[in-house]
Specification:
This protein is of the alpha/beta class. It has 15 helices and 13 strands. A hairpin with a 2-residue loop joins strand 9 and strand 10.
């Protein structure tokens, strides 16, 4: 086992309960130096996974809290090592004093993500499960939390391991025949593995195809608000954000760059991008903003076109409509309905058209319904979809290597040539499962975590 580490797992802000966590060799004995059970038995004799009442002392030996302690002995713990948790009153002063006492008693400060890293290194979690822990902590929607929880439970690992095991079987059979020619081993024939390779390639392709949905689930829908100046784009962003995020004036061209804000619209997380009004302009700075607005439309998952419904559509409006026309997900908003309506839904070539008033909030609930219909309910959210860019890249490389191996089979290449691609696929898959991932990559993964997790 590793040396004992300690950290506060619940953050250093005032709360009802604060937790100090320890893990590693000797941690129960170290914890026993600063915690006295009310029944006067040593903490080292406390039963596993049972909360026990006692007193926590600081490094001067003063009682600083009456709290609970729970021990979990290896291997039946989160990290796979002996662990102890103190469930204290959530005073930052108590937590800091308790932590200092543990350091004085022999524990070392935990690094970012070190508890989960130890769980991975000790075989308690696969790498996909470990990465999903931080996704679960950072989840901003119920769907994102459900998907991350499924991945922590091993759903993605279960989809990947059969493919990885097929590749291992193929490679090990080839090398067994090659290295032990005198043994009674069934002759190696690539043709017998072709069907399995095809099925595995299909499985990886199906998984790769979920990444677009997974990216939205994790990061939110990139939604570009577009229109000519002074139609109410910034007012719309402010209304959805619930505060004045963007300056709004009657002067055209106030917004000269893209402005971003993350909001919940219905049950969907939107990364709203308020763009500069798209129009012909001789102002160099505003023109740069217009270029960025057009780029935002190209990269957006959702385009929200806004027009001033109290004024007839202009050539500028029509040019922006054409810019949005080919987008897969587009919504048109006829704004300023409180000023009298000249533009009608029949004037706009959009599937989704909503009449709104950003000044009063009228119609915003209908926008929420449309957004949810476009993006909610499409994903299983059970942990079976790819949400992680690193994992996507590794699975993509594995898929491409398997296609190359299948092409080699079709061309009649020798087994050793085909196996080069199979081993490349296996190596890429191992980066996802954790079987072949490099130490620098794992270090970077766990650096995303907070101290104490």
């Amino acid at each position: 086992m590793s040396h004992a580490i300690a950290a506060v797992s619940t953050g250093m802000s005032v709360s009802a309960i604060g937790i100090i966590r320890l893990s590693g060799e000797g941690c129960i004995e170290i914890a026993g130096k600063v915690f006295t059970l009310y029944n006067n038995i040593p903490l080292s004799q406390a039963p596993d996974r049972k909360l026990m009442l006692g007193t926590l002392q600081d490094k001067q030996g003063r009682t600083i809290d009456q709290c609970m302690a729970v021990c979990s002995r290896a291997p039946h713990s989160y990290t796979g090592e002996d662990t102890v948790e103190f469930h204290c009153h959530g005073s930052p002063a108590v937590l800091a004093a308790g932590l200092e006492a543990l350091y004085a008693a022999g524990a070392q400060p935990a690094k970012r993500g070190e508890f989960t890293k130890r769980a991975f290194l000790n075989g308690k979690l696969g790498l996909t499960q470990a990465e999903a822990v931080i996704d679960l902590i950072e989840a901003e929607t119920a769907d994102a939390a459900a998907n991350a929880a499924g991945q922590v439970g091993g759903m993605l690992q279960k989809k990947l391991m059969p493919v990885y095991n097929d590749l291992v079987d193929l490679c090990s059979h080839f090398h067994a025949v090659l290295d032990y020619p005198d043994e009674d081993i069934e002759d190696f024939g690539l043709a017998s593995y072709e069907s399995a390779l095809k099925q595995d390639a299909k499985a990886l392709y199906a998984l790769l195809s979920t990444y677009g949905q997974g990216r939205i689930l994790r990061s939110g829908v990139a939604a570009a608000i577009v229109g000519k100046p002074n139609v109410g784009k910034s007012s719309l962003l402010n209304a959805l954000a619930g505060y004045e995020r963007v300056i709004v004036t009657e002067v055209a061209g106030t917004t000269r760059d893209t402005v971003e804000e993350t909001v919940m619209v219905g049950t969907t997380k939107l990364r709203l991008i308020d763009t500069a009004g798209i129009r012909e302009t001789e102002d160099r700075i505003e023109a740069m903003g217009v270029v960025r607005s057009k780029q935002a439309v190209e990269n957006a998952d959702l385009v929200i076109f806004v027009c001033d419904g109290s004024q007839p559509l202009t050539a500028e409006d029509q040019a922006i409509i054409e810019l949005c026309a080919d987008h897969e997900n587009a919504v048109a908003l006829i704004n300023k309905t409180d000023l009298g309506q000249v533009v009608l839904p029949s004037d706009l070539p959009f599937m989704n058209i909503i009449e709104i008033c950003t000044a009063t909030g009228e119609g915003l609930d209908m926008l929420a319904g449309v957004v949810d219909n476009l993006f909610a309910g499409e994903m299983p959210c059970d942990g079976s979809i790819l949400t992680n860019a690193r994992q996507f890249d590794a699975v993509r490389r594995a898929y491409e290597a398997m296609l190359s191996a299948l092409q080699g089979l079709k061309l009649g290449l020798t087994p050793d040539a085909v196996l080069t691609d199979v081993e490349a696929a296996m190596s890429a898959m191992g980066e996802v499962t954790g079987a072949t991932v490099r130490e620098d990559i794992t270090a970077r993964i766990f650096e995303r975590f907070c101290v104490g997790k």
